[in-house]
TrEMBL record:
Protein's recorded name: Threonylcarbamoyl-AMP synthase
Family to which this protein belongs: Belongs to the SUA5 family.
GO cellular component labels: cytoplasm
UniProt KW Cytoplasm keyword: yes
Keyword Nucleotidyltransferase attributed: yes
Protein's GO biological process: regulation of translational fidelity; tRNA processing
One MF term in the entry's GO annotations: double-stranded RNA binding
Function of the protein: Required for the formation of a threonylcarbamoyl group on adenosine at position 37 (t(6)A37) in tRNAs that read codons beginning with adenine.
Enzyme class: transferase
EC number: 2.7.7.87
Subcellular location: Cytoplasm
Residues that bind ATP: R53, N57, T113, S139, S147, R191, Y230
Keywords per UniProt: ATP-binding, Cytoplasm, Nucleotide-binding, Nucleotidyltransferase, Transferase, tRNA processing
Amino acid sequence: METIIYNLDQIGEAAQALRSGQLVAFPTETVYGLGADATNEEAVKKVYQAKGRPSDNPLIVHVASVAMVEKYAAEIPEKARQLMTAFWPGSLTIILKIKPGSLSKTVTGGLSTVAFRFPKCQPTLDLIEQAGVPMVGPSANTSGKPSPTTAQHVYHDLHGKIYGILDDGPTKVGVESTVLDMSTDHPVILRPGAVTKADIEGVIGSIDLNHHHVGKGEIPKAPGMKYKHYAPNAQVYIVDPEEDWANVMKWVEQQPFAVGVMAEDVILKQLTLPKNAQAFSLGNGVTDASARLFDGLRMYDDEKQVQAIVTQAFPAHDLGLAYMNRLNKSAGGQHFRDEFLK
Ligand code: TXA
Ligand code: MG
């Protein structure tokens, strides 16, 4: 199958393909998603196959109205409604109890809850409305790889395996949505994103944060948390804020292979890069860095001789918490400091 790239004039054709059970990747403000009609079990099954995704990892259901949520949620608690009013459309995914029998087990991974997301991306809201059905949408990458922030990233991972891609250029936020479990009395963030704990607490009061790595034998709240994530082929090392980048460059120079260097412009400008260093700019500040992180990690996968990547850390609060959560996973928790002291 030759994967079609749809431009924004072709939303109607993309919607028609979805309605007929095909997979169509779609843009959002966070990352690109892999879309299928959430009410068509055969179509949803194809999503897991195309991504190579374990079948117990549930999918987010993308909607274009609160009325669509009402069709599939058992109930919408008052606090969840307040969050929808405050942050939708936007990067907050809300988990609610499912209306029994309303969506297949393939969507929910057998859980009694379902995650809803109303993305801030008009072409995709139009796509859902024209298809007339909610759309499942995991990130449109091969399972385990960094999420896609351009249509080209999606094409790279999934061409030949999916029917089409709706191209709306690079995504703005670059890290996936905040996932908030509202299915119990105690709301808890399962994955940090651009909508922060403080943002949410400003609307509904105190909530919990539980996004830490799940150990062997533990049952994770968000099944996706137990899988390896965001991993490029090269080893990734976190460069902590207190690190002296001159030392990092000394280490780079000693390596017998090419090393990727991901840092802000202000840092890159001051450095004398050794010959085997391949720089990638994270721009200026944590907002830029979040938007660019996955693009950089993916770029090094195409530069086969790069065997290590040193990447700048940011303070782990607000958007920085989301950035560091993704960077930690792609680094498997490895810090440059530990490597350098060896
Ligand atoms: O920004 C995003 O959220 C992107 C775009 C495409 O919307 N989507 C995305 O989907 O990141 P995905 O499938 O890659 O990540 C969804 C996460 C997974 O870790 C999954 O386990 C968790 O949300 N999740 C989904 N439904 C859940 C549920 N009912 N209970 C707990 N966790 C759930
Ligand atoms: Mg994903």
